[in-house]
Amino acid sequence: MTTLPPCGTKKLGLVIDLDTCVGCHACVVSCKGWNTENYGAPLSDADPYGANPLGTFLNRVHSYEVQPESAPTQLIHFPKSCLHCDDAPCVTVCPTGASYKRVEDGIVLVNEDACIGCGLCAWACPYGAREMDAAAGVMKKCTLCVDRIYNENLPEIDRVPACVRTCPSGARHFGDLGDPTSAVSQLVADRGGFDLMPELGTKPVNKYLPPRLKDTLAKAPPKAMPTVNVDAGGFLGWLDRALDSLPGKGE
Amino acid sequence: MHPAPSLIIFTTLSGLGFGLLFWLGLGYPDVSGWVAATFLGLGFVLAGIGLGAAALHLGNPQRAWRAFSQWRSSWLSREAVMSVAALSVMALYGAIWVFAGERLPILGAIGAALCAATVFATAMIYAQLKTVPRWNSWTTPALFLTIAAAGGAALASLVFLAAFLMLLGGILQGVAWVTGDNRAEKPHSTIESATGLGAIGKVRAFAAPHTGENYLLREMVHQIGRKHIKRLRVISMLLGYTLPAIVMATDPGHTEAAVALASHVVGVLAGRWLFFAQAEHVMGLYYGKGQSDQ
After folding, report:
1. Cβ separation of B59 and A194 shorter than 8 Å?
2. Residues of A in contact with B129 (CB under 8 A)
3. pLDDT in tens, A176-191
4. Model confidence pLDDT, tens digit, residues A212-241
5. Which residue of B59, B204, B286 is in closest CB contact with A137?
6. CA Rg value for chain B
7. pLDDT of B35-48, one tens digit each?
8. Which of B67, B128, B286 lies closest to A128 in CB terms?
9. What percent of chain B has pLDDT over 90?
10. Beta-carbon separation of B286 and A80 below 8 A
């Protein structure tokens, strides 16, 4: 059924710290790796080593430049994947029932055996979180690594989404955002976590933590160091002049 | 949005086909026998070509039957259900009409209502999308329904009705363009709300996540041909509505009416191309595509 289920109490999701993310794209690579080797159709690439490589990804990292009124420009790296919305518009538009939201943990998934590849869910998603796989002709999206988080064959430390496990800067957090006492919920409360495009009423479960306030300098920065004298004497001076006299100057 | 030829052909031809079947179901024109069969055949072929083109658009068309299941929530599923219901009822109505020589008005009216519902469902697939502000308006179903009724009336030789509906279609198309431009110029969503970084300052997309293209950009950030928008709008308005409305109002012969209808279809195709090519998806904001950069 593609009508949305009654909202469960458990809402698994990610909290992404825009203050800590260094934009290394390790989460992108680990996501592509895990989701190509495990659940569902592999994330295909077209022309991967050619002039115009094209591929399916479930997680991508954008970079934005933000210019405050009177402070230096900030560069902010911005990982983006499915936000597992409470009011997911991608689910209700699906004509076949392939797209669904789980009652038990709120994860939005695609049953690839029922997906006809019409692409309407990708149109309905404001975040660009769904990509049609060109090889399989079915819609791919973040599964929150549903095949890791409950997988008792994995050591407990690995039972988190691949992107969270791999993040070297600890910018990605996984947990139950439906439980106000969970670590992720408290992190969101403490740091003022926010929704993306709240005006569209999708009620995303994933939250983003804003970059922390930057320091402002109490006094003017020190003057630049004076340029040191480059007219060397002695042996180095001779070497400098000798090299200058050779052909090929300036190369 | 990517102006996929399959979708442009589907929405135009199936609209024309269901428009013709709509008027046939309502008892127009007053013909019988082979002539009636020809009218019905034309309606079924047009609607059928359209549905076939739509099925080709799918990544896995062999599973298309599953699309009949989610009519409770999905406009695309409703369209599938309605189109099959409309064609089935009209097939029954047409068989009784052609072979028994009797037009059952209630059955025809049900068929006509289902034809209208099919076109409405098609339009709502686009109009429901909050992510595409240019489509997210009452003008989308109003225009789709009027165009289908106008083309169908022209095919059903209801020339004066066709002239009126084409005039109405032209007005609605104009309203759709003007209100759509306004929505695109004053978007609810901005790169600041998309990233949530507006509280810090002005946001600019610095680097895309990838150096090449991807599905999202190909499908939803179509930029080609925008420079011809004004010219295409004029062509669509003149050929699609003004010229055929004038010709139809003069009670034309078959040849003139056919030319006017061809002109109408070309104009509607141009308008439908613009409908897709000009529509901006809010997802483009993440890639730094402004809503009004045409």
Report:
1. no
2. 123-124
3. 999 999 999 999 999 9
4. 988 877 777 778 887 776 677 788 888 888
5. B59
6. 21
7. 999 999 999 999 98
8. B286
9. 74
10. yes
CA distances from B152 to B23, B24, B80, B112 (A): 7, 9, 20, 12
User: What is the per-residue pLDDT for B291?
Assistant: 41
Output the pLDDT for position B124.
97
Whether the Cβ atoms of residue A91 and residue A101 lie closer than 8 Å to each other: yes
ipTM surpassing 0.85, yes or no?
yes
The nearest alpha carbon in chain A to B205 belongs to: A64
The DSSP secondary structure of A15-54, one letter per residue, reads EEETTT-----HHHHHHHHHHHHSSSS---EESTTSSS-E
Residues near A178 by Cβ (< 8 Å), separated by ≥ 6? A8, A9, A10, A11, A106
Average pLDDT (B114-120) is: 97
In angstroms, the Cα distances linking A196 to A1, A82, A199, B163 are: 26, 11, 9, 48
Q: Is the Cβ pair A138, B60 closer than 8 Å? A: yes
**ω into B141 cis (within 30 of 0):** no
Contact A66 B208 (CB under 8 A): no
Number of domains in chain A: 1
**A79 has pLDDT over 90:** yes
Domain that includes residue A56, residue range: 12-209
Separation of alpha carbons B103 and B100, rounded Å: 9
Q: Are A126 and B283 within 8 A, CB to CB?
A: yes
Stretch B114-140: mean pLDDT: 96
Q: What is the pLDDT of residue A19?
A: 96
Q: How far is A57 from chain B (nearest CA, A)?
A: 9
Task: Give domain status of residue A160, yes or no.
Answer: yes
Element of type H or E holding B243: helix B243-249
**Which chain B residues are closer than 8 Å to A120 by Cβ?**
74, 76, 125
Phi and psi for A77 in degrees, rounded to 5?
-85, 140
The CATH number given to whatever domain includes residue A29 is 3.30.70.20
Q: Do A131 and B216 touch (CB under 8 A)?
A: yes
DSSP A174-204: EEETTSTTSHHHHHHHHHT-B-SSGGG----
